[in-house]
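Protocol check, entry for the methods section draft. Step 1: assemble the input record (protein sequence plus ligand SMILES). Step 2: submit for complex structure prediction. Step 3: store the structure tokens unaltered in the notebook. Ligand used here: flavin-adenine dinucleotide. Step 1 record:
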Amino acid sequence: MNKQYDVILVGCGVAGCFAALHLPDDWNILMITKGNIEESDSFLAQGGICVLKSEDDYDSFFEDTMRAGHYENRKESVDMMIRSSRTVIDELVSFGVSFMQEDGQFLYTREGAHSTNRILYHDDITGKEITEKLLAQVNKRKNVTLLCRTEMVDLLCHDNTCDGILVREENGNLTPVFADNILLACGGIGGIYDNSTNFPHLTGDALALSLKHNIRLQNINYVQIHPTTLYSTKKERRFLISESVRGEGAVLLDKNGERFVNELLPRDVVTQEILKQMEKDHTDFVWLSMQTIKDLDITKRFPNIYKKCLEEGFDITKDWIPVVPAQHYFMGGVYVDLKSKTSMEHLYASGETCCNGVHGANRLASNSLLESLVFAKNAALDMAASKKDSGRFSSSLSFTEKELEEHYHIDLSDYKDLDAFHDKNKQLIWNEIDKENRKDKKI
Ligand SMILES: Cc1cc2nc3c(=O)[nH]c(=O)nc-3n(C[C@H](O)[C@H](O)[C@H](O)COP(=O)(O)OP(=O)(O)OC[C@H]3O[C@@H](n4cnc5c(N)ncnc54)[C@H](O)[C@@H]3O)c2cc1C
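Step 3, stored output:
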């Protein structure tokens, strides 16, 4: 690994990839991922990606996003996301992404809290389709070095300026890597929960480091619970039953087979109703029936869900399936402005790691892929526009371990026991979430 790059991208989900593709192709870029290449939540997105399908839909798209977010959204960010959506979709298509079409026209699906169909999709594996195609484009770029199983364990910063990151390489070596700019695109926090639809290695590392280095955070206790994941007693990632299933007409049933909620209300409301029903019925789950979906072959519309449920012993064409809420998405994060700049110089953040205010207190379904792409692109364009500050590393970059520790106020022995280090970071995040929850409840 080189020690110095123009840009370091931490994460190779849609945010990291889209940023890479909008940086100058003669810049030296390092992209790292803690897991394997396909182990990002971007690969898991099922439902789809929102788009402004026509100018007529602007007001309604804006209002749906704000209402779902309890009007705590930053209006300028929502506007930017919606206004940029068609260009971003055009770019995805130019990168080879395919969305479902009929007679040459896009098909749009719908999810909870949307007042119209405005979601583009690819079967029920939209995220895989988008991320694979973006990664294929990144792989063509000779200027991008992509390293898997390589973990950012700390930021190298002083005087509110980020110079680089400390990396734990696959062989266990700790290496300082420097860059003019660094983008945190580390995804969400599902890995700190017992029940989550996220990959377990997504543990909010950027948040823990932000807390450590006094980087501004926002809404760290705004966590979205998805109402419908497949009930299981196994210790593993929870399998999501996409909201578009309900968007197409599936219904939720109590233990007696009676409907108890309007299935298309915002996620937080449906989740609360399910939890109340489970308590009332003394059950660990409620039922989801897809037999109410008419005029659609659900095995073709939802092939991935059909296959997974069959593996677990449920035939969605005949059986009701048991579903339960689980942690799913993180609306809060590292505070950023419209250009995705954090409160620290030379440090950007995008995707689920950041909070640019689009989602307010609750995300509208299928807005997150779009938000990740729009604001990761903004980060890259801002880095490209700001003249490279090449003088900033004029002094020697070859630190001894002692010099590195002194200059960046770190202790290299902190990262020796990785499990203890991860536990400490998780605890840091939980403490902050609890603190904010207490403030909100004014306890
Ligand atoms: C099951 C599921 C279904 C979803 N469905 C939809 C949907 O239909 N529509 C929609 O819009 N959104 C959906 N979402 C949400 C959406 O997928 C995510 O919000 C989005 O993909 C986040 O992208 P990202 O690039 O920010 O993060 P991710 O794609 O999660 O990528 C994070 C990257 O950061 C890396 N990383 C993390 N920590 C470190 C570290 N310390 N060092 C190095 N690398 C690190 C990870 O290895 C990974 O490469 C869904 C999410 C899930 C879990």
